[in-house]
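Re: [ENG-882] Designed sequences occasionally contain unexpected residues at chain ends

Forwarding the minimal case from QA. Structure tokens:
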């Protein structure tokens, strides 16, 4: 049992006669907690789909920033570099075109599919690995095995849940299977990445860049190895934080509780 799961379980045991649990964390391994709650006769209600679109949008946004460095070039213009430039334009980093490149998505659930729709609109070749392929996923991506995804992808998105079988999936052994210069995007869970291994790959150039909205421990620790990595964008776990998504959390939670009170529970994940 992880420390987080023990904390949840201890809280349950201290709560007098809990009758309902509502959880928002959809990408953590909560199977142990759900089983424990089921043993106690406590339904666990999920809050699904509140951030599907914005998380997909944010993931692609991280990729776009890596490819074009909008923020950097905006800053240099405001510092006067363009005004004093001898030519009519300049760029401080390689400009990367995504058209025709192969993108691999690990985890083609709701969020993975939202991301795939955007990437398809950009005329990228989308391949995916998922332990549970779906018909809707087949309309958006070609399912492949994990080693094929590592070998063929120019860009890799992590959209899978954090389970024991996915923890540390980005490690030195799997990075060695990837193309030189691959780009990695993770706004799922930080523990999917062995951070020391990714730092080494970024600093060696094996991985060209990484866009991360999550790290292994949050808030980030001052000694996190990724803070010493080249070409690594890190944002403070805000993929989900659009006002519209936060409003959906409240609305769905209220609806869940009302349905439970009415004797018709919905979004129960531990039946």
């Amino acid at each position: 049992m992880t420390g987080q799961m023990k904390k949840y379980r201890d809280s349950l045991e201290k709560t007098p006669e809990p009758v309902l649990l509502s959880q928002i964390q959809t990408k953590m391994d909560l199977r142990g907690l759900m089983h424990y709650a089921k043993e106690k006769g406590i339904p666990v209600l999920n809050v699904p789909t509140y951030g599907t679109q914005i998380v997909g949008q944010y993931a692609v946004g991280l990729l776009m920033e890596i490819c074009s460095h909008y923020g950097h070039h905006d800053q240099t213009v405001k510092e006067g570099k363009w005004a004093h430039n001898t030519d009519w334009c300049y760029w401080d980093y390689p400009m990367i075109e995504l058209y025709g490149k192969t993108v691999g998505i690990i985890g083609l659930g709701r969020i993975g599919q939202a991301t795939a729709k955007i990437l398809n609109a950009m005329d990228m070749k989308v391949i995916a690995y998922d332990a549970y392929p779906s018909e809707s996923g087949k309309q958006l991506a070609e399912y492949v095995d994990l080693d094929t995804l590592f070998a063929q992808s120019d860009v890799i998105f992590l959209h899978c849940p954090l389970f024991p079988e996915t923890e540390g999936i980005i490690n030195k052994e799997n990075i060695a299977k990837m193309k030189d210069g691959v780009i990695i995007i993770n706004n799922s869970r930080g523990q999917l990445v062995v951070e020391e291994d990714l730092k080494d790959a970024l600093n060696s150039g094996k991985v060209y860049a990484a866009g991360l909205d999550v790290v292994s421990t949050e808030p980030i620790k001052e000694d996190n190895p990724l803070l010493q990595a080249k070409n690594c964008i890190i944002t403070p776990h805000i993929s989900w934080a659009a006002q519209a998504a936060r409003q959906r959390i409240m609305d769905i939670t209220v609806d869940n509780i009302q349905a439970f009170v009415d004797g018709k529970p919905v979004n129960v994940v531990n039946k």
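QA comment: On inspection the terminal residues look reasonable. The chain has two domains: 3-50+243-261, 52-71+92-234. Proposing we downgrade this to a documentation issue.
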